[in-house]
Amino acid sequence: MTEAPRAVDDFGPDHDAIIVGAGFGGMGAAIALKRLGLDDLAILEREDDLGGTWHVNHYPGLAVDIASVTYSYSFEPNPYWSRLFAPGAELKRYAEHVADKYDLRRHMRFDTVVERAEWDDDGRFWTAFTADGRRVTGRYLLTATGFLSQPHIPDFEGIETFAGKIIHTTDWEDGYDFAGKRAAVIGTGATAVQLIPEIAKRSDALTVFQRTPIWVVPKVDLPIPGPVQSLFAKVPVTQKAARLANSSLLELLMVLGVLRFKQAKPGNKGAALLAKAHLRVQVRDRGTREALTPTYDFGCKRPTFSNTYFAAFNKPNVTLETSSIVRFEPDGIVTADGAKTVVDTLVLATGFNLWEVNFPAFQIVGRDGRDLGKWWRDGRFQAYEGVTMPKFPNLLSLNSPYSYSGLSYFTTIESQMRHISRLFGEMDRTGTDTFEVTEDANERFLNRVTDNLRSSVFYAGDCSGSRSYYFNQHGEATLLRPNSTPATLHEMSTFPLADYTYRSA
Ligand code: NAP
Questions:
Q1: Are 135 and 119 in contact (CB under 8 A)?
Q2: Is the pLDDT of residue 4 over 60?
């Protein structure tokens, strides 16, 4: 990294590529580029270590909610997951293993916050400007900043007067002792579902402030015994078979339950019935059951898996509060029904901001001064194959509208690795070094996904009141790619090469 870019005309940019983000997405992109022979990489990471979400999140109860055989790189299986759904710390160790095995650490620069990136069309390179005043240049820019990386902290009236402790789940204080505390959790998303049973065990009193209930289905989770781990290690095809079986099940859930809702409504309704039966078995009090039952269709917002969440509401020290929060006072929270809950520890499980401050996570200015965030927000959120945009040459934006494919994030990562290989293979073949997707290809892709989405639960179902982050501020469901995993993988390996223009000096 240098204080100022070198004279790019004479020497070329500092690096082949700048990758922003050292989570699984950024590491997958780095592996893809290294396989293509691009080894001069700068992986810039705002946190102080690698692993992305699995470095940032370490709240009690954290575990993956897609079975680990599937939630991992297909080319780097880990036979030693301790459970079907590995705890968060194992994911962090797996990320470290991948970084070491693929020699990625030497490219990583931690505590480096990228604030802006700008394309230079004469020199055909990107400059990334960091918060500490440095500039880094690269022929290519790959952003892998995550979908859920900008914490959402609601602006509750009077919260600044609250005298107790406030913890956002992404900023967990390890070892914080809940014993003797009157705790509150705001939010009932996937994070809260994992956290609430843990805080219920540890605190004197816990009030859960729920605005929108979440669909929760049982989690079939078991330890993976030593002999099975040895079998996976010695006969890798057995783990591959387990991955295939699990991934196929998830695929059915995603395609039938969510994307093809219109054609396969009974599949979606079956999932909702399963979640309702789970609630019926676990929660004794009828009023609490009713309050915990969503009114929107299954799949409108990301459903979750847990065997302990509903049961936590049976505990005498746990209260479910559904009246909306009006204001904070120094010692508690006042709700619309006029009641006040005295609280000394407040946990904000309030999720992330995707559409206002993410997409992109920092300012990106392309050709002719096109500002990516402004272009998306003023017009429509869009990205060809979920990765590239017209007027943004040599940019691969890996967390973009329509890029999330399948239920496991690794589907998205590996499909994008294929896209990178095909695109860079073509530049290699034609002796070029600069690509840009055409306006026409981008428009065709946008029209197709918009059309396909009409069959999804987001448009054919009832998502009113779901407050789902799958929808952007214009009311469009622009996060998920509306086709099956095999279709995405196939398309990323076969997209028409003429959908891009190529050039060199
Ligand atoms: P989330 O799903 O966005 O949930 C945020 C929660 O906070 C919602 O219940 C939301 O209520 C509530 N909230 C936000 N602002 C509020 C306000 N002003 N007043 C009252 N309530 C408010 O965030 P998350 O739980 O962190 O999960 C995000 C995603 O992370 C998940 O969908 C999942 O993809 C991923 N995740 C994965 C794992 C895993 O694999 N292990 C674990 C955790 C999370 P509303 O619904 O009413 O807005």
A1: no
A2: no
- Integer Cα distance of 171 and 169 in angstroms: 5
**Predicted confidence (pLDDT) per residue in 40-51, tens digit:** 999 999 999 999
Using a 6 Å CB cutoff, which residues line ligand 1? 63-65, 148, 154, 186-192, 194, 211-212, 302, 325, 349-351, 467, 469
Contact present, 259 and 251 (Cβ < 8 Å): no
In the chain, the amino acid numbered 445 is F
Mutation test of ligand 1: which of 90, 188, 191, 216 has the most ligand atoms closer than 8 Å to its C-beta? 191
Q: Residue 267: its pLDDT value, please?
A: 87
Cα-Cα end-to-end distance for the chain: 24
Q: How far is the centre of ligand 1, averaged over its atoms, from the C-alpha of 203 (Å)?
A: 22
Per the DSSP assignment, residues forming a β-bridge with 335 are 325
Does the structural domain 8-50+104-150+354-503 have CATH classification 3.50.50.60?
yes
DSSP 8-state symbol, 494: H
> Is 159-222+275-348 CATH 3.50.50.60?
yes
Query: What tens digit of pLDDT does each residue of 411-446 get?
Result: 999 999 999 999 999 999 999 999 999 999 999 999
Give me the pLDDT at residue 10, please: 57
Query: Are domains 8-50+104-150+354-503 and 159-222+275-348 of this chain identical in fold?
Result: yes
Ligand 1 centroid–CA 190 distance in Å is 6
436 vs 500: CA distance, rounded Å: 5
Q: Give Rg (Cα) of the chain.
A: 23
Residue 205 has pLDDT above 80, yes or no: yes
In this prediction the pTM is 0.95
- DSSP type of residue 345: E
Within 10 Å of residue 290's Cβ, how many Cβ atoms?
A: 12
Q: Which atom of ligand 1 is nearest to the CA of 63?
A: 41
- Is the CB of residue 21 less than 8 Å from the CB of residue 47? no
**Span 312-317, mean pLDDT?**
97
pLDDT band at 25; cut points 50, 70, 90: very high
Residue nearest to atom 28 of ligand 1 (CA): 351
